[in-house]
Amino acid sequence: MKNMQGADIEKLDREFVWHPFTQMSDWEKERNILIERGEGVYLYDIYGNKYIDGVSSLWVNVHGHNNPELNSALKEQLDKISHSTLLGLANVPSAVLAEKLIEIAPKNLKKVFYSDSGSTSVEIAVKVAFQYFRQKGPAYKNKKKIIAATSAYHGDTLGSVSVGGIELFHSIYKPLLFETVRITYPYCYRCPFNLKHPDCGLYCAKEAEKIIKVHAEESCALIIEPMLQGASGMITMPAGYMKKIERACKDNGILLILDEVATGFGRTGEMFAAFHEDISPDAMCMAKGITGGYLPMAATLFTQEIYDGFLGNYQDNKTFFHGHTYTGNQLASACAVKSLEMFKKYGLLNKMKPVIARFNELLKDFGQLENIGDIRNIGLTAGIELVKDKETKEPFEAGKRIGHKVVLNARERGVIIRPLGDVVVVMPPLVIDESTLETLMSAIYDSVKAAVQN
Q1: How far apart are the first and last CA of the chain?
Q2: How many other CB atoms are there within 10 angstroms of residue 72's CB atom?
Q3: Closest CA to 271 of 440, 26, 105
Q4: What is the pTM of this model?
Q5: Which of 96, 98, 291, 319 is the most exposed place for a label (fewest CB within 10 A)?
Q6: 28, 396, 404, 422 from 399: Cα distances, Å
Q7: Domain residue limits at 240
Q8: Is residue 85 part of a domain?
Q9: Sheet holding 415-416: strands in order across?
Q10: Same domain (yes/no): 40, 78
Q11: Distance between CA 359 and CA 377 in Å, rounded?
Q12: CA-CA distance, 265 to 89, in Å (whole number)?
C-alpha cells in the first residue's frame, strides 16, 4: 500500500466497495474523500487535506483520533493476545471492563453481555426480554410483543429493524419483521397531535401511558432512545417524558430497555442519557463510543433479576443461546477500559461543560438564518432542521437534497459532517476545544447559508 497513489486508491474504492446508507450511483459521480489518518479532532485524506471531524466518525470518537494513551493500551494488549473466544472461556480485559461498566451505569444494572455493534446489543435485549417471560411461567405466556416508539432507529439487523420505525429505512423489510406496538415519540417541532409544548402537558406521554396499559398483558418490553432520538432527525425529548414512560413500564410489568448506543459515554453531557431523569432501566444497550472510537464493541446490561431468570439445570434449557465470535474481544475491551479510565483521569464530563455552553451559544446564531426551522440539541450534539418556509415549516423538495449540499459545502471549508435528510447533524469529538468548535460552527453556518441561497 505504501507505493499506491491517491488515484489508485480512489479507483479501488469505486470498483469494489459498496458503502452503507449510500446511493452508489451518486457516489460514482462525486469527488469523494478517502481518509488516510487522523490526529486529535482532525481527519486527513489521501492528498493531505485536513478536516474537522464534525460527527465524531459517526458518534464514536471520544478522546480524539490517534490518541497516545489509547494507542498504547491497544499495543500493550496486542503483545499479549488479540482474541480468544468468550464461549466457554474468560479473559482479563473483558472481566475488568464489565466491572467498570457496572460502576458507571444505573445502579440497578448488574450483569454485562457483550457483542460487537449497536444492532446486536438491541437484538440481545429484545431476545432476553422475550425469553425471560417465556421462562417465568404459564401466567406470562402471552407477553411476546415489544413496544417501541414512532420514528425509532435501533439498528439494521432484523430484530432491531422490527423495533425501528423509520419508513425510509425499514418499510421495505416489513414482510420479514415481527409486529410491534407503537407509542409516539415526542417531536415537538412537528407535533403529531398539533399541540404546543409545554402547554400540551406532555399529551404524547399520556397517550403512551394508555397504550402501554392496554398492551401490558401481551408485551414483554418497551425499547426507547432516551432524551435523543438520533437517526430520525436528532429529536430531543422534552423534560418529564422519559420518567413517565419508566413509571408506566414499572406499573404494568413491562421491561424497560434503554437504547443508549448513540447517547452513551458522555454524548449528552452525562455519562448516560438515563441520568438526566434518574431512569432505572431493566436493560441498557451501549456501543459506539464504548472503545473511544477505536474498535467495534457493544454491551447489553441487565438487572440481577433478569439474569437470575436464566439460571437452572442444563436440561431446563434456560440458557441464553446467543453469542458472537468476537464477543468480549481483548483488543476492544482493553481500549474500552482505557477510555473509561481517561474519562475519570481528565474529568471529561466536567471539562465538557464550558464547551457545551459555548456550543449552545453558537447554535443560537443559526436561528438568524431564513431557512432554519428548528435547532435541537443536548450535550455536545445537535440537529439543525432546514425548511423551505420558516413560518409554515414546509420542508424542501426531497430532490433538492439541501442537507447533502450543506455537507459538500462544508467539505470545501475543511469540515466533515453528515445530514439526516435536511437535518444537519453536529456532534464533534468530546475533547474538542472552544476555539476549534467555533471554527467548526462557523464553517457549518456558512455552508448552510450557501446551500439554501443556491
Answers
A1: 40
A2: 12
A3: 105
A4: 0.97
A5: 319
A6: 18, 8, 10, 11
A7: 72-345
A8: yes
A9: 35-39, 42-45, 50-53, 415-416
A10: no
A11: 9
A12: 28
| Contact between 82 and 449 (Cβ < 8 Å) | no
Tell me the three cell numbers of residue 276: 438526566
Do both 239 and 376 map to the same domain?
A: no
Asked if 334 and 364 sit in the same domain, the reply is no
Ramachandran category for residue 210: left, alpha or beta (phi over 0 → left; psi -120 to 50 → alpha): alpha
Listed residue (448, 428, 449, 433) closest to 52, CA to CA? 428
Q: Which of 345, 361, 386 is the C-terminal boundary of a domain?
A: 345
Is 235:376 a contact under the CB 8 Å cutoff?
Answer: yes
- Are residues 286 and 122 in contact, defined by beta-carbon separation less than 8 angstroms? no
Q: Kindly tell me the sign of the dihedral angle through the C-alpha atoms of 430, 432, 438, 440.
A: negative
**Which tens digit of pLDDT belongs to each residue from 413-445?**
999 999 999 999 999 999 999 999 999 999 999
Answer for the pair 318, 310: CB distance below 8 angstroms, yes or no: yes
CB atoms inside a 10 Å sphere around CB 388: 16
Place of cell 401466567: 139
Per residue in 184-243, pLDDT (tens digit) is: 999 999 999 999 999 999 999 999 999 999 999 999 999 999 999 999 999 999 999 999
